[in-house]
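#onboarding

Welcome to the new folks! Below is a worked example of what a typical request in this channel looks like: someone posts a single protein sequence, and someone else replies with the predicted structure as tokens. Don't worry about understanding the tokens yet, we'll cover that in week two.

Example request:
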Amino acid sequence: MIRFENVGLRYGLGPEVLRDVSFRIAPGSFQYVTGPSGAGKTSLLRLLFLSLRPTRGLVRIFDQDAATLTRDSVPHLRRRIGIVFQDFRLLDHMTTYENVALPLRVLGTSEAHYGRDVSELLEWVGLGDKMWVHPPVLSGGEKQRAAIARALITKPEILLADEPTGNVDPPLARRLLRLFIELNRLGTSVVIATHDLGLMDQHDARRLVLNHGRVDIYE
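Example response:
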């Protein structure tokens, strides 16, 4: 599904943020990306989401070389990737339902085709009773679950999550982890960037450990 070979990344003329990074992500797999602050976790997720291109090395996503992708082909590939941002990025003027439905509306899908899916997904993440409220009314954990639902509504083949439990208390972090585990059980590959060792200890999975721009893999 995804292959990195000797990937390097730098911003402008600065030093390399990632150096000689090599790994593969298989369909239906679950992995953590971890490491100290500033190790390059978010940069790695941005490469996976095609919002950055490598300075050197090979990145192949769904058998496409990221370095040769045309501008028109990137949105098509991104539809196969869901992403949960650390800062949620919900739109305050839209209801929870409308925020979750937004990716489908952008694709031109009519509400007649997506309404039931959005409602069922919000029930699944525990927000059925918050469907018609706006984000400022939601707690941090509820915003996080809304962001997860929005990432899942297009039924992505891979889900990327950047510190998804960083702003919630431990009980809610465990609940969110169970959502990711269930999603993975249903066939979606999951990549969680986190520095929370306690969270990772609750579900044994492959770890990509970043340190000084390099990655070590622990199966």
